[in-house]
Design goal:
The chain folds into 3 domains: 93 residues, no CATH class; 184 residues, no CATH class; 100 residues, Immunoglobulin-like (Sandwich). The two termini are 59 Å apart. The longest helix has 29 residues. It is built from 9 helices and 19 strands. Helix 1 runs parallel beside helix 3, helix 2 runs antiparallel to helix 3 and helix 5 crosses helix 7. The strands form 4 sheets. Strands 2, 3, 6, 7, 8, 9, 10 and 11 form an 8-stranded mixed beta sheet that branches. The protein has a 5-stranded mixed beta sheet with strand order 1-13-14-17-12. The protein has 431 residues and is of the alpha+beta class.
Length: 431
Amino acid sequence: MDSNSNFFARAFAGRQWFRLWGPFLISISGLILFVSPLGKDPIPGLCFLGLFALGVIYLLVMSIIAFVKKRIAAGIATMICFFMALGLLVPALAYAFATSIDWDGQDDFATGLSLPAGVPLKEPGEISRDDSLNDGDRFQKAIRAAAAVMGGSNDAMAASIPSLEKLNSSHRAELEQYLACHPAWLVFEDRGKRFALRRWQEGGRWTKSLNGYYSDFSTAGAKFQSRTMIGLSGKPAFLGSQKLPANKLVRPKLAPGNGLQSCHLFFEFAPNLGVSLFEQSASAERVVTKAALLELEVEFAALLADPAGKLAELGEPGLESFEIENAFQGGIYRSRIRCNPGEPGRIYLKAFEITKGERLSADRLEKSTTEWVGWSNDPAEVFPANAQFTIYEGDWGQYYGGRFEVWFEPDSGGPERMLLEENYKIEGWMR
């Protein structure tokens, strides 16, 4: 057994070399392989990190054993090797991250592509920025008005939407059709659960914001952020929501954010129905949440009074159509769809580069544009749908032809079918 007095002198000899420097070199070899081209693929990369982990764990265990056996010099030397190996992990991870990023934000997809000859291409439209056109949305005006009033310190509240509860119990099919048909609601699925998100108007047109949050931080007296969502599967969209009983006095827990008071609330009205409400505002009193609850009751009371008549009002006369608009950056677009598939189901977009037929942003495009769309038995009616999506292939200023297709998948389980298609001159989003 090595003594403390001669341990360091023998650290490079015989068995001691293997026990001390062998695991250290194994760990370093794992890191070198991880940052090498061999480690770029996920499975080999994880294996090389596992090799590193085995080496450092061995060094840690051996140092503890040495200290327990009062072999202080051996314990110190092994612990130094442990910290040296562990210290190299941070720069190795930083290097791997830095080399994985395309720092100029470009890809080669559109290099060498040209606009297809003889194929008419539409230009994406521009989004209207005139907020004066939004006055027709009662819900939106009610939220802004509530946010402009400074609430008090009483955070107690009760969530009550009796008309929605009655619709859910006695007119569930009509409720689901209304939410799909009404342009103010976006019906979608996430993790196998179905939700209806309340849209707002932008430039007089119904638009889904990023993740469904609507806010105004520009006016001193009306700073707020809000989101209203119905859980049609009885579950909240945000897993961190406070689950609270409906029709009972409760006190939500508030958290600071943006200098305001925030809370994610989920009120359960039935096993298959809940309402998610997010509010970020200045006071403890949930003035925006209360306003949203009141407006939901007004809306669904009208539907409960005459379900068939209210549904008959939602269809718009006209022809089916599809168009896209430029959003806030090149490669990011908004779709505007008017259709009537004649039965309940979802629509989504497919996109293809025209000259080669290569599909664009397949999984992400389908997910970001999926919506359970409105329908009726009258083929002369159409129902609006819209989404925001990103085309990831190509870079800013590298234009090419894109064919967009609107696909419909019926809830009945029947075969999917294409409803609409259009060709557009597009560019990709530069990362």
